Structure formats: C-alpha cells, structure tokens
C-alpha cells in the first residue's frame, strides 16, 4: 500500500486526483498505475485500470486470479466491474469512497447477483493516510480556485 500511496502523490502532483494502485503476484510487484485521466484525456485511465492493463501484459493473460491489487481509494463502478472481469484474487483498498464506492460503501458490485466472480476484499488498510492525502489535495485545489478566480466578462 505504501507504493500505491507514492503513486497517488505523483498523480496529484501531475494534476490528477491522487489515487495509486499496485498489483502483486507471488510476492512480486508486477504492475502499477496512477490516475491519468487529465494527462491522457482518457475517462478510463483510473489507477486500477492502468494497473490491470499493465498486469495483463506482464503476465500474458487477463486472468488475474493469482494477483492482489492494492489501491488507495475504494474502486468506482467501472473499476469494480473490471476487477470482477479480471477474476482478481484479492482487492485491498485504503479509504472508502462515500460518493462512488462500488465495493462496499455505496454499492456492492463484487457480491451482486450479476457478478460471475466473488472478489475477496480487505478495506480500510492505511485508510487515514489515504483519506488525508485525498482531502489535502482537494483542499489545495479549492484554495487555488479561490486565489485565482476565472476572468469575469463585463
């Protein structure tokens, strides 16, 4: 999770929401990702998706049953669906997402009737660190907007 937090910081520094993800198989880091939506102009470039794509290439398969994904924020519906489709072995996440969490908080995609894979989940790992990172980033963004309001037309 510590590496995922580092990746989240890098995403935040680059202007993306600070979320980071790593994938481990056989105690080896095989893939990592950070939010890249703003930089890549890609609505699907969430940290989890970036990491899943990298893991699939590294392993030569989309079946990730032997893998654990560590991510700093509870996955959204898109990412939760991708984790189920990948047959991920274990999901470990940090902070709950009270607005869009699709693992346990708002909805529960892995345990839903349409899920063809029962994804094991551990939530709340280093949650306060992950939550604080997000809160500080959003607070800084709000402060910057207050300090530099857009030009108003007359």
TrEMBL record:
Question: What is this protein called in UniProt?
Answer: tRNA-specific adenosine deaminase
Residue runs in coiled coils:
none
Q: Tell me what organism the protein belongs to.
A: Thermocoleostomius sinensis A174
Q: What GO annotations for molecular function exist for this entry?
A: tRNA-specific adenosine-34 deaminase activity; zinc ion binding
What Pfam family is a match for this entry?
A: MafB19-deam
Family annotation (PANTHER family): CYTOSINE DEAMINASE FAMILY MEMBER, TRNA-SPECIFIC ADENOSINE DEAMINASE
Keyword annotations from UniProtKB, A to Z? Hydrolase, Metal-binding, tRNA processing, Zinc
Q: Which gene encodes it?
A: tadA
| Gene Ontology biological process | tRNA wobble adenosine to inosine editing
According to its UniProt record, which cofactors does this protein need? Zn(2+)
Family stated for the protein in its record: Belongs to the cytidine and deoxycytidylate deaminase family. ADAT2 subfamily.
Q: What class of enzyme is it?
A: hydrolase
This enzyme catalyses: adenosine(34) in tRNA + H2O + H(+) = inosine(34) in tRNA + NH4(+)
**Where does the record place the catalytic residues?**
48 (proton donor)
Q: How is the cofactor bound?
A: Binds 1 zinc ion per subunit.
Q: Does the keyword Zinc apply?
A: yes
Q: What does this protein do?
A: Catalyzes the deamination of adenosine to inosine at the wobble position 34 of tRNA(Arg2).
Q: Where does Zn(2+) bind?
A: 46, 76, 79
Quaternary structure, per UniProt, is:
Homodimer.
């Amino acid at each position: 999770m510590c590496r995922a937090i580092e990746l989240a910081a890098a995403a935040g520094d680059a202007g993306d929401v600070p979320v980071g993800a790593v994938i481990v198989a056989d105690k080896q880091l095989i893939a990592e990702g950070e939010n890249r939506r703003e930089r890549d102009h890609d609505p699907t470039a969430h940290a989890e998706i970036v990491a899943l794509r990298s893991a699939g290439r590294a392993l030569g398969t989309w079946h990730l049953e032997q893998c654990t994904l560590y991510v700093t924020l509870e996955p959204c519906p898109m990412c939760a669906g991708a984790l189920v489709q990948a047959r991920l072995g274990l999901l470990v996440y940090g902070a709950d997402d009270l607005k869009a969490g699709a693992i346990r908080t708002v909805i529960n995609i892995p345990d839903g009737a349409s899920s063809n894979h029962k994804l094991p989940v551990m939530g709340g790992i280093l949650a306060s660190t992950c939550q604080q990172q997000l809160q500080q980033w959003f607070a800084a963004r709000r402060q910057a907007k207050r300090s530099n309001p857009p030009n108003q037309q007359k």
